[in-house]
Each structure stands twice: as C-alpha cells, then as structure tokens.
Write a structure and sequence with these properties.
Elements: H1 2-24, H2 28-40, E1 59-60, E2 63-64, E3 74-79, E4 87-91, E5 97-100, E6 104-107, H3 113-127, E7 134-140, E8 147-152, E9 158-161, H4 170-176, E10 184-193, E11 196-200, H5 202-206, E12 220-225, H6 227-249
Parallel strand pairs: 8-12
Antiparallel strand pairs: 1-2, 3-4, 3-7, 5-6, 8-9, 10-11, 10-12
Length: about 250
C-alpha cells in the first residue's frame, strides 16, 4: 500500500507539472496580440514620433485594392433609391472630414472605399434606413504637392518648394518663413500631416532637448499665437490713450 501511495503521488505531481507548464506556455501569437494591444494604446502626439512614410493602399492577400481615401479626394456617394441622401463631388478635407446629407460630418481618412461604404451604411441603418446600400466612386484623386506650408505667427507665411533631393527639417521650414513673430506661442506649434495633427514644442527643439523633426512634402505648419502675449500687447497699446489725460493733469 505504501508503494501504491507513492506512485500515486508521483503521477499526480507529474500531471500537475504538465498542467502548470501548459497554462503558463502561451503560443507566440498570444504574446504578439498582447504586445499589439499595448502598442495601440500609445497616442502619437509629437512630430518627432511621426511615421516617415504613410501607406495609402490596402491589400487583401496579394491583391491590391483601391488606395485609401486621402485629403482632397473627390467622391460621388450614392445611396441606392434614396437620391436625397446621396451626394456628388464630395471633397475630403485636410482633416479627413466629409459632409453628407442627414449624416453630417464624417471622418473617412485612411479608409478604403468599401470600408467607407460600410461605415455610411451603418450610420444610415442606425437612424434612417432599414437596409441601405451605399456605393462610393472616386472621381478625382489629388496627388500630393511637392511643397511645404508655413502659416500663422511667422514673418513671411507661405507655400515653399520642398527639396527635390535631401530632406527638410522643422527648423529649416521656420527659417524659410523668416522666423516667428513676437506673438508666437513657441510651446504649441501644430503640424498637419495626412489628416492628423501633431504638436511640436519649438523651444525644446531650439534648445536641443528634442530632435529637430524631419518633414515630408505636403506638411503644413501652423504657428499659433500666444493668448498671453496678445493680451499684453493690447494692454500696452491701450495704456498710452488712457494715461494721456492724466499726464496732462500732472
């Protein structure tokens, strides 16, 4: 009996060890999935972390379908048998927004035509139609310009030619516009790229605390005005008119 008990203990131990090993050993795809979830939660807010290239194509297996919807694309959107909800010559804004009857504003940036169709159908099905059928046709696709735009609180706002060879950095683009004005908010500069907005701290870049980001053709830089500086200037402009009569009394 003692030998039987021992064998039972050994057998039980081996079974438990196997169960522990199986429960702790996940397939590689499990860890890839968890890593992917963590990566997706990271919000990209700085220009330094912007992707150097942006793909506008979607693939199914080895077959390439229509390029994804991009800024300035022109679309014909047809709702089957409901012309009042259809729209022609709809232009995709730089932010990826389009405006449709009944639905209103809708972001379609980066979606394939088929994905945009499904998205519109879901919105119509939710509030208006039982079984909507949407067809989207791209009538015009605007190619990216080989330029860079700098606007806002800079001395010479404008559209500048992007280098045919080599690269262009953020500080170089500011230099093309002859620098910022005294009203500029150097801590909050916005760069628009592919329908997304990225924040750049100009002070940090100048001091070498953060890298000087490399720009892409068709990027748009907007130097915002500082509310504090604008208010201070208005006060200084207003003060002489208020103090003039008092100075005459004195």
């Amino acid at each position: 009996m003692k030998i039987i008990k021992t064998s039972h203990i050994i057998t039980t131990t081996l079974i438990c060890s196997s169960l522990v090993a199986c429960s702790s050993s996940k397939p590689r795809s499990y860890y890839d999935e968890q890593e992917s979830k963590v990566t997706q939660t990271v919000s990209t807010t700085t220009l330094a972390s912007m992707p150097s290239t942006t793909k506008h194509t979607t693939t199914v297996g080895a077959t390439q379908i229509n390029p994804a919807i991009a800024s300035q694309d022109k679309l014909d959107i047809t709702v089957f048998k409901v012309p009042e909800l259809s729209a022609n010559n709809v232009i995709v804004e730089s932010t990826g927004i389009i405006s449709l009857p009944y639905i209103g504003s809708l972001n379609v940036m980066g979606l394939s035509l088929q994905q945009a169709e499904r998205k519109i159908e879901d919105l119509l099905r939710k509030d208006a139609l039982q079984n909507p059928k949407v067809t989207i046709k791209r009538t015009e696709r605007k190619l990216k310009r080989n330029t860079i735009t700098v606007e806002g609180a800079v001395k010479t706002p404008g559209v500048f030619q992007f280098p045919v060879k080599g690269s262009l950095s953020f500080l170089q683009a500011i230099a093309l516009s002859h620098g910022i004005t005294e009203m500029a908010d150097t801590k909050n500069v916005v760069v628009f790229r592919d329908g997304k907005q990225y924040a750049v701290n100009l002070d940090s870049v100048r001091r070498g605390l953060t890298p000087d980001p490399v720009l892409k053709a068709d990027d748009r830089i907007v130097i915002l005005k500082s509310d504090r500086k604008v208010k201070e200037k208005k006060i200084l402009e207003y003060l002489p008119a208020v103090l003039a009569p008092l100075s005459m009394v004195l």
